[in-house]
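Researcher: We are triaging several targets before committing to wet-lab work. For this one, the compound of interest is pyridoxal-5'-phosphate. I'm pasting the protein sequence and the ligand SMILES. What I need is the predicted three-dimensional arrangement of the protein with the ligand bound, expressed as structure tokens, so it can go straight into our comparison scripts without reformatting.
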Amino acid sequence: MKTEEVTPIKIKKADSSKIEKVDFDHLTFGSVFTDHMFVCDYVNGSWGTPEIIPYQPLVLDPSARVFHYAQAVFEGMKAYRDDKDGIWLFRPDENFNRINKSSVRMAMPEFPEDYFFEGLKTLLKLDEKWIRKGEGNSLYIRPFVIATEPSVMASPSGQYKFVIICSPAQSYYGGEVRVKIADHYSRSASGGIGAAKAAANYGAQFYPTNLANKEGYQQVIWTDSNTHEYLEEAGTMNVFFRIGDKLLTAPTSDRILDGVTRKSVIAVAEANGITVEVRPVKVEEIVAAAKSGTLKEIFGSGTAAVINPVAGFGYKEDKFELPKSSDSYASMIKKAIIDIQYNRAEDPFGWRYEVR
Ligand SMILES: *Cc1c(COP(=O)(O)O)cnc(C)c1O
């Protein structure tokens, strides 16, 4: 990016690589990690020397504040290898800006842009072999920040650790997804931390998601915490509804995560002549459209799966199935985004970022 000086990164290489032991054809998402990790500590009001070290456990004091007060934020991004061995990131500035926005909301310090990009590129080059060619293969990148100061005093930590770990991933298919529209629990609240990619948001949604799982749903569509009348997100994804030939999605707010994939879906849809209405979407409207047959699709958007179509949904006592269609917006838009990510198509939006 706009670095004038070269960021000094201390590198300690792993003695040997684990890659030979990895079965790349049977990966469980997020369970295998590459040989190295990026770490940088914040003490006395500033970030220290960034380092790349062999992937290893973190040693933290049991009183480290992250364990007690959930000062923890993260990001999810991916690196792709094209057929000519080029390595690409997708809109990484968005992730960089967002992790700092999330940090600010959690009273945590922002991370410098040159440390982030130099650290990430150096790490990806060191672990380059882990980024595999071929349809659906990618390297999932997980930057995160945690509060490390040893003290259970209920105030913001004075020490933090910024870490990046990477995990090889295959294309994600979770089977048919049926979702339950939330009418009691909420993922986030007005004035809360829903717009931050904060670890605590995930902890808070596991319990209601487990309840929905018991009723036969894979995910919950979250509604606004004030009235439960408006549809906001699907699980950990943003959510789109197709009524007739139009796409609807909720505007971002302090309850909704401003997804990179969401923005990209809106741009690709509009570039393909699809009308996208970004406005509050009422549960009532979607139920009525399902009953009258004008509701054609529901899909979630997020980095892990890009787009995840929804097969059906439940609201209170009612269950609805969505029509199966081979010319869905979901599959057209997903293909357009993936082709840009893998450098198989023109990138009119300037979204690709080459790792050299
Ligand atoms: C990460 C996330 C998304 C998707 O964001 P992308 O930038 O598209 O990956 C959507 N909703 C929530 C709650 C999230 O945490």
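Researcher: Any quick observations?
Model: The longest strand covers residues 138-147.
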